[in-house]
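Minutes, methods subgroup
Present: GH (chair), OT, SY

1. OT presented the first of two proteins processed in the latest run. Sequence and structure tokens recorded below as shown on screen.
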Amino acid sequence: MSPELISILVLVVVFVIATTRSVNMGALAFAAAFGVGTLVADLDADGIFAGFPGDLFVVLVGVTYLFAIARANGTTDWLVHAAVRMVRGRVALIPWVMFALTGALTAIGAVSPAAVAIVAPVALSFATRYAISPLLMGTMVVHGAQAGGFSPISIYGSIVNGIVEREGLPGSEVTLFLASLIANLVIAGVLFVLFGGRKLWARGAVSPQDGGTAGDGAADEGTTGSGTTGSGTGPSGAGASGSGPRSAGTGTAAGTAPSAVAVRPDRAPEGDGAGPRLAPARVATLLALVALVVAVLGFDLDAGLTAVSLAVVLSTAWPDDSRRAVGEIAWSTVLLICGVLTYVGVLEEMGTITWAGEGVGGIGVPLLAAVLLCYIGALVSAFASSVGIMGALIPLAVPFLAQGEIGAVGMVAALAVSATVVDVSPFSTNGALVLAAAPDVDRERFFRQLMVYGGIVVAVVPALAWLVLVVPGFG
């Protein structure tokens, strides 16, 4: 048995054990990386740790730390209140506002994870308060980021168009952008209908005080469009969180009017029905969030390091508000994501991904090779860098694109769509940010929801992209 095949089988075993035994998948993946890297790939510790996603580790810790402080001092309450007023109480519009906001950020040049890191915590705090499915809100944010991700001036668009030009392939910047925009817009529409959007419309307008509580944990975080509710946090499992107990009876089905529950004294709204006031700590936190946006988009600074620095400043100025924030960092999610991506790094180091891609590229039937490359791009991108995968797969497609039987423009667009829509996977950067940013959720349940949805996207979207973009022979 080849080393590459062994490494793939070990990955399957990791998934099976994590699913059936409720063991943190990240811990399993670290053990698998050590075993496969040492015994099969002949890597030393440095070679194994070369795949550790240090930048993603800092992003996850930094962003969740900063927004834990924002939740502790009531800043997210104020933002949610302001968002309701902005859409005149039409809660159903908020998922689309978040979709458009992240799309606009990536279209003008923000890296997709940076846009998601900025928008997701506020979006999911809103979802929790107003009994909106966190799966709906989180996926709307991610698909919004991908909708704008291939504009001609975006990071992803510039990289892919540069690869196409370097390989001497015909390209169309507009086709690439529109393919991603339309695909993600259609998916967002389907998600909105399936996960409670119609009931949100039926709810009509609400006042900012109509949420389940003034805090961020009112609505049951496990709700879905089908009306199911979560069963409480679990201490173990792939994405389990060690969060504290929650008040019983707060769960409400997505799309239904949230019931009145007790308001925690430290989170009660202030003022005469006007919502939370802008106390000094909240003003400073809002300025910190604005600074994060400016630093990331305007000066191309690292989102994680910037967020940690801002969180430290706020913690120093208001230690009482920030005392619990470090404990609220999504450490189990950090372990999960970093472990899995470290194992994926071992796969890349030992050539497993290249081995699979070259095997597909050698198939003599161009249309079959095209759909298999789309599936490889989707599957691998669910665990690794989307742009990195496209950078590897587009050159692999050059030989059969040169035969003229497959349109290069359609093939590149299909690869781009297949490799990015799967970023809703909890193992990708964007999916991990959504998982980490959701306040007071049953993280194990939310993790499984994201994993199932990501699996559906991997199974369905590449085939549809191939059928719509490749089979007609565009370009």
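2. SY then presented the second protein from the same run.
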Amino acid sequence: MSRRIRMAGTLLAASALTMGALTGVASAQGDSGRAAAAKVDNPYSGAKVYVNPDWSAKAAAEPGGSKISNQPTGIWLDRIAAINGVNGAMGLRAHLDEALKQSGGSPTVVQLVVYDLPGRDCSALASNGELGPTEIDKYKTQFIDPIAAILSESKYANSSLRIVNTIEVDSLPNLVTNTGGKATATPECDTMKANGNYVKGVGYALNKLGAIGNVYNYIDAGHHGWIGWDDNFNPTAQVIKQAATAEGSTVDKVAGIITNTANFSALKENNFTINDSVNGTTVRQSKWVDWNRYVDELSYAQAFRQELVNVGFPSNIGALIDTSRNGWGGSARPTGPGAKTSVDTYVDGGRYDRRIHIGNWCNQSGAGLGERPKAAPASGIDAYVWMKPPGESDGASSEIPNDEGKGFDRMCDPTYTGNARNGYNMSGALANAPLSGHWFSAQFQELLKNAYPAL
């Protein structure tokens, strides 16, 4: 593989506005007689990115939503039924057909989130899945195999499409942080570590999907406020390596990592650094940073990418950062450092991330849209992406009976006073939220209002 070259550039929606097409790529839709283009180092470079019509229509129907409704977002394959389409939403083939239309023969990225592991999301209830902890064979044969079969069809595999897969959000980091007698451990995560089905499932997905010539797999690597501590950093890289070499997969079937998926961690904190100190006390000792090595997503993603290289991944792997909800703009955005009364006043007064606690993850009050999707924005970063479609709920704020396998997590309840994973702080969640993945108008309006850069 050639050396990865990343040049800053703006990524526009897959419409008439593009970044400019690369030459020499198969352009005829459905031309099964033409071989797929060789894999490139950065699939986002020189490419359009597919705009999901389902999400775009919902966004455009919101007051002010037309300002962002042409942005590319991820397509969440979060249950077996989603492959063929459920509740009126488009299925995978319909999305790929539409992407071919949008491409006009130019390189076009389609962003998929592959998300249906057995015992899914063992540390939270809001996004539990349909498969039980032991149903690894069903995951392989009824979920991954059908996805791979569709992506392998010549109409799609031998086309201008570049398929980017975000592989199983939150799964592997949970095996490190929420197991083994830790204060944050859960019986469900201990079960998934013991039976190996997260590692097996991710390895199987990487192997089957990565064998397709125009597919690029990015493994979820949590975010800095989860994995940035010394106890978590290298162990998470090791478990990702374990999964990347399981079930016949190899590290070469991994294009990179994605961080901050569906989360809120600020991209770049400009008002303080990890090396600052106040009255002789390091920023790392502040309640917010709490001895973490990183204060924002960009520094974390770049460092974690390098850690993967250190443990045996190719030196040219990339990283994506989900910036769909980490803008933290609006009137609460600090304009400079906090007061140097103490290390806490300094950090709390200057940090862009306005969450009550960095462990809060559900429908956060005050959050805003972050950087718009953009290719090659920084060293080691393939793209800023909106993998989480803005306006889709993280989880219901009260219990809602459903047939999607989704439970009620108190972290989505605005009255909840917390647990060990968020330092027993208030959840910071918005009220009246629907089930995860369902449209949440109030959240969408919050994100528009607090966008940074502003709309």
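Chair's summary of item 2: The first helix runs from residue 53 to 60.
Next meeting: continue with the remaining queue.
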